[in-house]
Design a protein that fits this description.
Helix content is 34%, strand content 15%. The protein is α/β, with parallel strands linked by helices and 203 residues long. It has a single domain, classed as Peptidoglycan recognition protein-like (Lysozyme-like, 3-Layer(aba) Sandwich), CATH 3.40.80. A six-stranded mixed β-sheet has the order 1-4-3-5-2-6, sandwiched between helices. Strand 3 and strand 4 form a beta hairpin. The longest helix has 25 residues. The radius of gyration is 16 Å and the shape is globular. The N and C termini lie far apart (46 Å). It binds zinc ion. Belongs to the N-acetylmuramoyl-L-alanine amidase 2 family. One of its GO terms (biological process) is peptidoglycan catabolic process. Keywords: Disulfide bond, Immunity, Innate immunity, Signal.
Length: 203
Amino acid sequence: MVIFITNTFIDSRTNVVLLTFFKTFFSVSKTKTIPIVSRVEWGAQSPTSITNLTLPVPYVIIHHTYEPGACYSLLECSSAMRSIQNYHQGTQGWADIGYNFAVGGDGSIYEGRGWKAVGAHAAGYNSVSIGIVLIGDFVSQLPPAQQMELTKELIEVGVELGYISKEYSLIGHRQVRSTECPGDALFQEITTWDRFTPAVNTK
Ligand SMILES: [Zn+2]
């Protein structure tokens, strides 16, 4: 089982290299082979229920985990995912891990509820957004560049695949709820990203 996971991980990383090569030299459309660690690979529990999103969604909402802290390997990040899911399902009583996707410091994306299911990460906005969490505490420190680039790639792919509106608004969690999330450092950073929207209609 461990060997299988390791092989998949290496394949995923190879895909990133190929993707960069093709993008650089052939200007082809982004492929669908971004490195996503599936729920089976990180050891997810099944959701207790699923509500479908109406696609494409108009918002992308960025979070940090704060806790658990940053992870830098498939094993560490998978463990972080399981602990977040345990907290969300067990303590909070939610149907599943709250986020649609998580991005690890190991250079991989982790599948949460995915592109099609309504998440539980930003009250009032769950049904109109994809929630992406960067694993780690980014109050005073930025995530590694690779982790942020991968987050941007994930958003671009979501747009290409029709899950995220081309005119999407990128916002931080704190813009729709009283919370420090996604941390001061990361929030300042995302204000420079494509389609960041300073003013959000409150719901
Ligand atoms: Zn948040």
